[in-house]
Specification:
heterodimer; A: about 475 residues; mainly alpha; about 0% strand; B: about 350 residues; globular
């Protein structure tokens, strides 16, 4: 990540951060807390369904494993592609809250529909719609978080959001199993309660999240806006002229979205996200490898993701705050180094009793150091008008890369077996991390000039 | 929406009350369902279910009411008569020669608690094995000595395309467990096949207490394999054969065949093991189950109940491709002919 807040002079808007290294804002913006609450509530809702869905489909409806496997693949590919649409739409209509709200609403609508679907076809359609909702809301939500937070506190803000989000993901299954244990075949109750919870999430969004995107003429907004744009100009955009006048928002067009990729720093970030995504083995494989490697009892297998999530939850905020202080690039790369260490342990460590805990801890730390830090870094490079589009570009690139990695890793696993496949992934990750470390190095003043020379300001500036 | 803070909190409180009330009502309705057998459904009475009683049919009772999910039995020649329900509840069940296997998933504190129970003829638990995932298929060998099960393993929610099964075979006498058939050697068309994307499911046993048949998927295709427990090996026989079920005379297998590539649409077929020739059965609906032979001429299988989301009915169809499907038992799953 670029050390936007270090390589640039402290911006006028960032009154709370007089000097670098002593970034201590009193609290996280209320918008971030509100969005965190919305995400937490929504995640409770969706993870309730996720937790019981396999049993419902396989035991309740008698679906075969293969049928369920096909379904799983379908609904995971959807949200990555919809993300771009959601991001661009949000910037275009200048109302991030509206698009995010539609996304949350669509997912909420899908939950009661699950009660009516009895076979694979309709269930696939409903789950695909649910994922569409998730895809629509992701980029505008992250844009809202970043637009409501001064540049030097982005890491912490995203850390808070991700921690709240993960809390919801952990509470969801608890709620679902609680309902199942007090009811008789209470799948309908789980889906119904999940729908109620999802609607509550939408209500909280409508009540407590201010509409973002189009800069409103309120003083607080204007200040936040100024902060964001100054930070952007100093940090990522080619030069100050790349930032349009905040008072005269120009319509955002599809070409501007593509023009974003001409921003060298955003392009570098996207390239690194894709490269690292291509070498990040999907969680499911990590857990399978861990079980094969350590012979963890079958009864513990479903608990492995909870270990990762717990560590992620505990460290998301500290890691985000650390990224704001010592630099997002350092923390982001350290996160990947920790993941690499995890791969190394899986490959070569002797059979310590602590091995599963170590690997899960490293896996959770990897998420804490990267999941919120990446959007924080993206925020520092994209003008406010195109924030959601920028978030979506990097997010989609990363998601598609991870999907590709999953396919490639599956192939390598088939061809070479587990050990060599993981070794190859680790070698790939090492190379990609080295490239990322080089590409994302802090811009020297001279280099920044070169960058600006290379970039045609007209291209990145939204047309007046 | 410009509201004062107190207004917002008021709206939030009202929303919480309304949604909370609705959620509570849903849970309470679902919790009280226990007492209410659905009108017109089969009558079910608690009683002793014995796996050695000749001429009876065992299945999991799926009708609404207090015995939902329980192992139940009816006379095989009068399946519509009142059901006798045991205390044992399972998600998947099978029994032969006085041995039963019950795959059970109960809500745990943090995750599902999945177990395979080996039960004796009085349904008393003899052994219990933890499972890594959601119960899917269960079988017992005709002698009652071996039991097999398949579970679906899913590691996480946001992963990319991923599915994995675990299939285990246990010697119910010694307790010796083959926890993962993927460790068996695979002979594919005469050559040793080594691949890590191998998934096994749907075991069916022969009378000799060594031979078994199962589905193996690898490289995007499903294969019928014939295996040896003692030899820890399997050999491929045919493609596009899932969830085999060996006939009592061991000359044929029934299985589901994917009728359109990539689609989740299966038709039940029967293959002659001598000639590997197959024929479709009269059932035209998509069957996603491991069928069970009631005798050498008749197959039973589950299909989703029309209009009910979480229930299946048992149907039968002649094994020679003639006739028409017939409803065997509404609100039932996991059929096994006893005795």
């Amino acid at each position: 990540m670029y050390l936007a807040d270090r390589s640039a002079p402290a911006s006028e808007g960032a009154k709370t951060a007089p000097g670098r290294g002593s970034v201590r804002a009193p609290a996280v913006a209320s918008t971030v807390l509100a969005l965190g609450a919305v995400s937490m509530i929504t995640d409770i809702s969706s993870e309730m369904v996720t937790a019981v869905l396999p049993l419902y489909l396989i035991a309740g409806l008698g679906l075969s494993p293969l049928g369920f496997g096909a379904l799983d693949g379908v609904y995971n590919g959807v949200s990555a592609l919809v993300q771009l649409t959601g991001g661009h739409l949000a910037d275009r209509v200048r109302n991030h809250k509206l698009i995010a709200g539609i996304g949350y609403g669509l997912s909420a609508l899908c939950k009661p529909l699950l009660l009516l679907a009895h076979s694979l076809g309709p269930i696939s359609v409903i789950l695909t719609l649910e994922r569409t909702g998730k895809g629509l809301r992701t980029a505008p939500r992250d844009a809202l978080i970043s637009l409501s937070t001064p540049p030097e506190l982005q890491g912490r803000a995203f850390g808070v959001h991700r921690a709240m989000d993960t809390t919801g993901a952990l509470l969801g299954p608890l709620a679902a199993f609680l309902i199942l244990s007090v009811t008789v075949d209470g799948y309908d109750a789980v889906f119904g309660v999940s729908a109620c919870v999802a609607v509550l999430g939408v209500v909280v969004l409508m009540l407590f999240v201010p509409s973002g995107g189009a800069p409103a003429p309120t003083p607080a907004k204007a200040a936040a806006k100024a902060t964001a744009t100054t930070g952007t100009a100093a940090a990522g955009a080619a030069n100050a002229t790349a930032v349009p006048d905040a008072d005269r928002p120009a319509p955002v067009r599809l070409r501007d979205a593509l023009g974003l990729l001409r921003l060298p720093r955003l392009r570098n970030l996207a390239v690194c996200a894709v490269l690292l995504g291509l070498t990040t083995v999907s969680d499911a494989f990590v857990y399978l490898l861990l079980q094969r490697r350590t012979g963890i009892g079958d009864q513990w297998f479903p608990l492995l993701p909870l270990g990762t999530a717990a560590v992620f939850l505990l460290l998301a905020v500290p890691a985000g705050a650390l990224a704001d202080r010592i630099g997002r690039r350092t923390v982001f790369l350290t996160g990947h180094a920790l993941l690499l260490t995890g791969y190394g342990l899986l490959l070569w460590a002797p059979a310590w009793p602590a091995l599963p805990f170590l690997v899960l801890a490293l896996h959770g730390m990897f998420y804490a150091a990267t999941d919120g830090v990446l959007p924080a870094a993206v925020a520092a490079t994209v003008p406010g008008e195109l924030r959601a589009t920028g978030m979506a570009l990097v997010g989609t690139g990363q998601a598609l890369a991870r999907f590709g990695c999953s396919l490639a890793f599956g192939g390598a696993w088939t061809l070479w077996g587990t050990g060599p496949a993981l070794a190859a992934a680790a070698a790939g990750l090492l190379c990609c991390a080295a490239v990322a470390g080089f590409v994302l190095r802090p811009a020297a003043p001279q280099e920044a000039r070169t960058d600006s020379n290379r970039t045609d300001p007209k291209r990145v500036r939204p047309p007046r | 929406m410009t509201l004062s803070n107190s207004r917002r909190l008021l709206v939030l409180a009202v929303a919480v009350l309304l949604l909370g009330g609705l959620a509570a009502a849903l849970v309470l309705r679902s919790a009280s369902r226990d007492d209410k057998p659905s009108a017109g459904g089969p009558t079910v009475a608690a009683g002793a279910v014995t796996l050695t009683r000749p001429g009876s049919l065992a299945f999991l009772n799926g009708g609404q009411g207090p015995h939902r999910g329980a192992v139940a039995s009816v006379p095989a020649d009068a399946p519509e008569s009142g059901r006798t329900a045991s205390e044992l509840t399972c998600q998947r069940f099978y029994a032969a020669a006085g041995t039963g296997v019950c795959l059970r998933s109960t809500p745990g504190a943090l995750a599902q608690d999945n177990k395979a129970l080996i039960v004796d003829s009085e349904l008393r638990t003899l052994r219990s094995f933890p499972l890594a995932g959601t119960p899917s298929r269960a079988r017992v060998s005709p002698s009652g000595r071996f039991a097999a099960w398949t579970v679906f393993v899913s590691g996480e929610s946001y992963g990319a395309a991923f599915f994995s099964t675990r299939t285990a075979i246990v010697d119910t006498r010694t307790g010796k467990l083959e926890a993962n058939l993927e460790e068996f050697a695979i002979d594919m068309d005469g050559r040793e096949h080594r691949a890590q994307d191998v998934n096994f499911w749907g075991v069916t046993f022969s009378k000799d207490d060594d031979t078994f048949y199962a589905t193996v998927s690898t490289g995007g295709e499903t294969h019928l394999v014939k295996g040896s427990i003692s030899g820890r090996s399997v050999k491929t026989l045919a493609k596009n054969v899932e969830c085999p079920s060996l006939s009592p005379d061991e000359t044929r297998i029934a299985y589901k065949k994917r009728v359109r590539a990539g689609a989740s649409l299966w038709r039940e077929h029967v293959m002659d093991l001598g000639t590997l020739r197959e024929h479709a059965l009269a059932e035209k609906r998509s069957v996603d189950d491991q069928a069970a032979w009631l005798d050498d001429r008749t197959l039973a299988y589950g299909l989703p109940t029309d209009g009910a989301a979480d229930s299946t009915d048992l149907w039968t169809v002649p094994a020679d491709g003639s006739g028409t499907p017939r409803l065997l038992a509404p609100g039932a799953a996991s059929p096994a002919r006893l005795g």
